[in-house]
Fold this protein.
Amino acid sequence: KVRYFDRDTDGDGVNDLADAFPLDATQSSDQDGDGYGDNQDGLNPDAFKFDETQWAAQDGDGYGDNPVGNDSDLFPTNEDQWQDADGDGYGDNTDGQDGDQFPSESTQWADQDLDGYGDNPLGFKPDGCPTVNAFSTNDRYGCPDSDLDGFSDPDENWTIEDGADALPKVGSQWIDGDGDGYGDASDGEQPDAC
């Protein structure tokens, strides 16, 4: 009688009964049972040998490419990004490639002048002056505000008629209805008596 208890079909030194891959000489074990081998130098290696829901991370960032597995990578070809909390397509790692400057606001992702207001003109609190680091907040966001009253200084694209500060050098005034150089706020500096 011939018994095959010690048969080693692929010749890797592990008998077929103990070999998870009896036809692959480069793999013999599969600790998590996902069908990918534990030998990183063999064919079809498992990058996550203790997690049956993940086996590959093509960008090498430690997050798996299987979108329905544990710790999945939403950006499988970008080693700098793996998650996107607000779902806008830009990764939460702000310092990495394609990073989101506003990881919890889905309508903004870029801020080229780094003033805290986003460059998307249709998004939440859009930067009225996206190339200038400034901090106006009332009539438009992120534009120069010389007197720090929250209203932006007028410029060629945004005039007093649009809502810019009529008195950009007087912090307690921003409206001058009759254009005489005195502000409409009666309790402000240089109030207009008429």
Remarks:
- The chain has no helices and no strands.
- The radius of gyration is 31 Å.
